[in-house]
């Protein structure tokens, strides 16, 4: 019994210590990115849960600045790839080149691409062709890439934060459903309010500007990710996650008036993602366990890229966001 008590005490102390560190982390990011508190929180949830994030918004909303700042404050090796229609898979993963040694023998040497880093920014990912987009599938799911039949492990931790322009803009390609499911959260980046935009205007157009500073030391992010998986989750939260995800499927366990609107819905990976994300959000707030409020707050970014509505629903003007709002009502 004493061992159990000691274990809980150690867990509480670790949560308290890391909670304070994560508070400093949010403050450091807020010095660089103005008026996007929810976006910052969801990006941190993504990384603490060990996943990948998709930032969706029009150009000029500081998506790139956010990713660069995250790389600095978290102490991660960060690289950026600008996705364009002519980008090829080898430009991301790397390729084998033929070389001749001093002895005259020829052989192939693998030249690593920019994917070999800890935080990869895939900028405007939906401007590249589906073939190039799919080059990231294995890297995002398995943490390695295969070139010429050889597997090459990626650094740990490895995260992808991709930015995407809304599909209604010209020159974009929709991401395949299989790749969308690899993103833990879809984070909508909206326009800042007037006060935040005023602060941004003053801070970024003067002679001097703020620079990002490292907050976490190497290894602390991995430690926090391990702690996220140790946070206890109550039965009511587990049941709430299952009820929500299963009700978001066509012909599922939800209300018939809602499930008839859904063409395809989230699989078990969505429930896993929601469980981890709720734990990560609780840790960021310094809480010892997630609640149903976390499920409600994270339902939309977890589910909206894992669902599609029927043609009839879209013709009626129904959106995925509207459906999710109604699905989470029983949890409020």
From TrEMBL:
Keywords: ATP-binding, Nucleotide-binding
Entries under Gene3D superfamilies matching the protein: Magnesium chelatase subunit I, C-Terminal domain, P-loop containing nucleotide triphosphate hydrolases
Molecular function, one GO term: ATP hydrolysis activity
Top-level taxon of origin: Bacteria
Domain spans labelled ChlI/MoxR AAA lid: 261-326
Residue span(s) of domain ATPase AAA-3: 52-185
Family statement drawn from the similarity comment of this UniProt entry: Belongs to the MoxR family.
Protein name, as recorded: AAA family ATPase
